[in-house]
Amino acid sequence: MIILGLDPGIGRTGFGVIDTSKANPYVRCGCLTTPQNLDVSDRLNMLGEDLSQLIATSHPDVAAVEQIFFGKNHSTAMLTAQARGVLLYILRQNNIPVESLTPLQIKSRLTGYGAAPKSQVQSVVRQQLHLDITPQPDDAADALAAALCIA
Amino acid sequence: MIILGLDPGIGRTGFGVIDTSKANPYVRCGCLTTPQNLDVSDRLNMLGEDLSQLIATSHPDVAAVEQIFFGKNHSTAMLTAQARGVLLYILRQNNIPVESLTPLQIKSRLTGYGAAPKSQVQSVVRQQLHLDITPQPDDAADALAAALCIA
After folding, report:
1. Across the interface, which of B41, B77, B88 has its CB nearest the CB of A98?
2. Which residue, A140, B29, B63, B71, could crosslink B140 as a Cys pair with Cβ 3.0–4.6 Å?
3. Residues B17, B18, B21, B23: what is their CA dihedral angle, to the nearest 10 degrees?
4. What is the pTM assigned to this prediction?
5. DSSP secondary-structure letter at A144?
6. Is residue A64 helix, strand or coil?
7. Which letter does DSSP use for residue A69 in this model?
C-alpha cells in the first residue's frame, strides 16, 4: 500500500510517500511550496496543481493529512485551513481516501506518548524508514510521520 | 459585468449573482448546501462541484468572496476556511478574478458605516436590486451584498 502523508501549509506543504509493500518503505519526501508574493488564489491554485502532479507520479492508495494546529496566529491558521481545504478537495477528486490526524494523535501513535518532543517523533521516523538523518525541512519529516501512522 | 458574490460555509455557502449591464441587476441568489452526515472531504468535493456548476450556468466575470469572520468557535472557523479554500481554487481554475472583502468592508461600502446592523445592509440590498423582500436565508442576502460592493 502506498501512503501519502501531508502536513498542510499555504507557503509550504510537507509531503512524504511510503510503500508498505517494500522491505524499505521510504519512497520520497519534500515540500510543495508557493511564493509569498502571489495572492492567495494563485497560491491555492499552485498548491492544488502541485498535489495533482504528486498524485500522478506517486499513485497513493490512501492519504494521511494533519489537522491544523490552532496556534496564536489566527490569520496563519486561516490560510493553512484554506490550503488544507484544497488538498482534501484534490485528494477526493482523485478518489484517494483520507485519514485526518491531529498532532497529538501522530505523536501518540508513533511514540506512545501524546506530548512527546519533536525529536522523539523524528527518531521513530528515521528508525522505521531506515534513514540515517532526519529529512529536512521539518514539514517533510512531519508528513512522513503522518504517513507512518496509518501504515 | 456579471458579478458572483459568495459567503463561504461548509454546510451552507450563500451565493448571489448580479448583472450590472441590466436596468434591474438582480439575477439570482441562493445557497450551496452540503449534508452534515458526510465527511469533510465529501462535503468539500460537493461544494466544489456545485460551484463549478453555478459558474457554468451563470458565467461570472468576477467574484466577491467574504473573508471569514473569526468568532468564538474555532472549529467552525476552520471548516469555513477549508470551504473558502476550495471556492477560491475553483474560481481560479475558471480564471475568475476574486476580490476578498471583510464583513466590515461590506457594511462600510454599502451603508457608509462599518458597524451598521444587518437590517441596514439588507435594506440597501433590497433597494439597489429592486427587491420587495430580503432574500432568505441571510447567507444569500450576504452574498448579494458582497456582489454589490464591487458593482
Report:
1. B41
2. B29
3. 140
4. 0.95
5. H
6. strand
7. P
Cβ B82–A81 below 8 Å, yes or no? Answer: yes
Find cell 506517486 and name the residue.
Answer: A58
CA–CA distance, B25 with B58 (Å, rounded to integer): 13
If one counts the domains in chain A, the total is: 1
3-state SS string for chain B: CEEEEEECCCCEEEEEEEECCCCCCEEEEEEEECCCCCCHHHHHHHHHHHHHHHHHHHCCCEEEEECCCCCCCHHHHHHHHHHHHHHHHHHHHCCCCEEEECHHHHHHHHHCCCCCCHHHHHHHHHHHCCCCCCCCCHHHHHHHHHHHHCC
Query: Rounded CA gap, A70 and A10, in Å?
Result: 15
Residue A21 is part of a domain; what is its CATH number? 3.30.420.10
ipTM of the complex: 0.94
Query: Which H or E run includes A5?
Result: strand A2-7
Handedness of CA A111, A117, A122, A127 (dihedral sign): negative
Tell the burial category of A35 from Cβ atoms under 10 Å away from its Cβ (0-12, 13-18, 19+): exposed
Nearest CA in chain A to B46: A89
Q: Kindly tell me if the per-residue pLDDT of B57 is higher than 80.
A: yes
| Chain B contact for A95 (CB, 8 A cutoff) | no
The DSSP code for A21 is T
pLDDT tier for residue B91 given thresholds of 50, 70 and 90: very high
Q: Which domain holds residue A28?
A: 2-149
Cα distance between residue A123 and residue A55, in whole Å: 27
